[in-house]
Amino acid sequence: xLEEIAVFTQNDDISLREVFRKIQVxxxxxxxxxxxxxxxxxxxYFAEALPDYDQDRVYLSDIRKVLMWYNLLHELGITxxxxxxxxxxxxxxxxxxxxxxxxxxENGEVAEATAETAVDE
Length: 121
Fold this sequence. Notes:
single chain, mainly alpha, Arc Repressor Mutant, subunit A, 2 domains, two-stranded antiparallel sheet, 36% helix, 3% strand, globular, disordered C terminus
C-alpha cells in the first residue's frame, strides 16, 4: 500500500514508504515534528528529510498529511518501513496471505474454510 502513494521530487517520484524511512533516519527512529507546527517549520523540516522534494507540486497540506501519518504509525509501533520481500505466493495469489483454512498468513489474516475445503475433509 505504501508503494502506491508517492511524493513528487525534482527527479523521480519517491514512494511514501521511502519518505517514511527518510524521516525515521532523520529522527533516529523517533517521532517527527507535529503536523500542526508552523508552516515555515514544516517546510524546513520536510526539506531536511527529503531535500529534493518538488516544492511546486508538494503542497503544505501534503506535508502535514505525511507527518501526521508517520507520527500515527510511530505511536502505534508500526515502524518497519523496509520494502516487503518478495515471498511465497499463497493460494489466494497474493503474497503473505493465508492459504489453507485456519492457516495464518504473514499479514495476520486467517484463511476461512470454504465449502470445497469442508467437503475434502
